[in-house]
Amino acid sequence: MISWLPINNDSDFSIHNLPFGIFSIHGGLKKVGVAISDKVIDLAALADHGLLKEIGGLAKSVLINEYLNDFIALGNSKTNGLRDHLRLMLTLESSPLKELPGALIDMDQVIMHLPVRVGDYTDFYSSIEHATNVGKMFRDPENALLPNWRHIPVGYHGRASSIIETNIPIRRPKGQVLLADSPTPLLTPTDKLDFELEVAFIVGKNSQLGQSVPVNHAEDYIFGLVLFNDWSARDIQKWEYVPLGPFLGKSFASSISPWVVPLEAFDAFRVAGPIQNPPVLDYLKIAGKKNIDLNLKVYIQPQDSKQHLVSNSNFKYMYWNMAQQLAHHTINGCNIKIGDVMASGTISGKDKNSFGSMLELSWNGQEPITLANGTTRSYIEDLDTIIINGFANNEYGRVGFGELRTQVLPAN
């Protein structure tokens, strides 16, 4: 499949991808766009010229919108049908898209925004390598996993209001910290600010209160995937998390990539997940390949310095997959809504260079990382920028997310 639009082989936004996002130009209206190569397709412009007549439901109120929620509500069959239609227009030599002014906009001319109105956010803890590393550090090296971990996709409800898009900086958070030589805590900016490498899925279909989503139908409720950085303040978290779990050490910010890649775009990159032992309960049993071979990279870029690769991981490592996460999330009748974000939890592999957090990479500060400029990091410092990339690539083609970039500013 060859497009008349030039697309580099290393572009995340190949003709196989066609992800959706919300963009604006020079402070103008926010609109639904599609990424292709180094361009953004303005769907409202196509609709104005009658090029989307085959796709029903694409009213202006859907395409000129602050969020993708109304667009997602059209359903996966409709939104994927639109991608097929765009793919045809991008491959036809006689395509009317070629001559349509304003339909293809240079990416460097647009501002990307938060893609969805997030009603609820759940963060899972689904990497066995990550959970094992944390258990070795803080509990028992011989019995690192808690007794429930291999039986349920562990998770917690996070803070939706502080989910931010790429290029939005965060402030170093403050909170209560208990120092090793003090009997009482003090209020202080965190000394252990950390990134967490994650992939999140966007819920694409509502369920009813009291309804459980069967694991074999769970993917019908997933619209697409984004990159996700679930920022963590490890010292604040350590003091507060007993007995009820994460709170201020997590709720200050989570960063999300602007382009939502439809789940269908990853069909050619499906792989089998790890063998689950002991066997899971029936409501979590899956058939087929549910993991995705998705390369993930994290860079630290100090101010006025080059970026330095610190983590080279892969989404395929996940012990608990998205279908199991969603089935477990709803087994008690909890209802889900379009735009809800469900994040994977930190994604770590078996090798140290594939660990998905500074907590693991520096082994809680005992083994600092040396960056390209000669400085070292145990955790993230002020004015550092964390950059996350993710892409799947094989003989089928390349499908990726672009870049998720966040700089850390000093505490107020």
Q: Could you describe the 3D structure shown?
A:
The chain has two domains: 93 residues, SH3 type barrels (Roll); 289 residues, Fumarylacetoacetate hydrolase, domain 2 (Alpha-Beta Complex). It contains nine helices and 26 strands. A hairpin with a 2-residue loop joins strand 2 and strand 3. The radius of gyration is 21 Å and the shape is globular.
SSE class: alpha+beta
The overall strand count is 26
CATH class of the largest domain equals Alpha Beta
Largest sheet: 8 strands, mixed
Rounded mean pLDDT score:
97
Please tally the helical runs, counting DSSP H or I stretches of 4 or more residues.
9
- Form type: globular
**Please, how many domains?**
2
For the record, the CATH architecture of the largest domain stands as: Alpha-Beta Complex
Q: Please give the radius of gyration in angstroms.
A: 21 Å
Query: How much helix, percentage-wise, in residues?
Result: 10-25%
How would you summarize this macromolecular structure in one to three sentences?
The strands form seven sheets. Strands 6, 7, 8, 13, 14, 16, 17 and 22 form an eight-stranded mixed sheet that branches. The chain is built from nine helices and 26 strands. The termini are far apart.
Topology:
Elements: E1 20-24, E2 31-36, E3 39-42, H1 43-48, H2 60-63, H3 69-72, H4 76-91, E4 104-106, E5 111-112, E6 121-124, H5 128-138, E7 155-157, E8 163-165, E9 170-171, E10 174-177, E11 186-189, E12 193-194, E13 197-203, E14 222-229, E15 232-233, H6 234-240, H7 248-251, E16 254-256, E17 261-262, E18 270-271, E19 291-292, E20 295-301, E21 308-314, H8 322-330, E22 341-343, H9 358-361, E23 369-370, E24 376-377, E25 385-394, E26 397-409
Parallel strand pairs: 6-22, 8-16, 9-26
Antiparallel strand pairs: 1-2, 1-5, 2-3, 3-4, 6-7, 10-11, 12-15, 13-14, 13-22, 14-16, 14-17, 18-19, 20-21, 20-25, 23-24, 25-26
